[in-house]
Write a structure and sequence with these properties.
The chain is mostly helical. The protein has five helices and no strands. The N and C termini lie far apart (75 Å). Keywords: Membrane, Transmembrane, Transmembrane helix.
């Protein structure tokens, strides 16, 4: 039972990490210090998708399921709703490359905006005339 709970928790953590990879740049727009967490996470997400690498979380999830005596993903909420989001049916190398490209493009757009804000921090204040 404990291994199953741990595996379910790890699947949820995995999903949250994926969401952070995808949308963490939006959080960086609000909380700038998250850039040091998001940049490596986004880089990892792109690398895993582009080079078709196995994520270590997947191996841990499978080991915990095996330790719990499960051979597959049964009938719980996690297995039916969360797992297919992380590992959709029919995932091919081409789709993985496309997903990696989406992650890269989305985050590049966000970071371009962020760097423009840093470069011109007070655009509205620059129109003041002195004299």
């Amino acid at each position: 039972m404990l291994y199953r709970i741990a595996a379910d928790g790890l699947v949820l953590s995995h999903l949250l990490f994926i969401l952070f990879v995808l949308f963490g740049g939006l959080l960086v727009l609000k909380w700038r210090h998250l850039i040091w967490w998001h940049l490596p996470a986004a880089a990892w997400g792109v690398i895993v998708e582009v080079f078709h690498l196995a994520c270590p979380l997947t191996e841990w999830e499978n080991r915990m399921r095996h330790a719990a005596g499960q051979t597959g993903y049964g009938g719980g909420f996690i297995e039916h709703y969360v797992w297919p989001i992380i590992y959709p049916a029919g995932l091919t190398p081409t789709i993985q490359l496309a997903l990696g490209s989406v992650v890269l493009a989305l985050n590049m757009l966000i970071y371009v905006r962020l760097f423009r804000q840093w470069k011109h921090p007070t655009r509205s204040g620059s129109n003041h005339r002195s004299g």
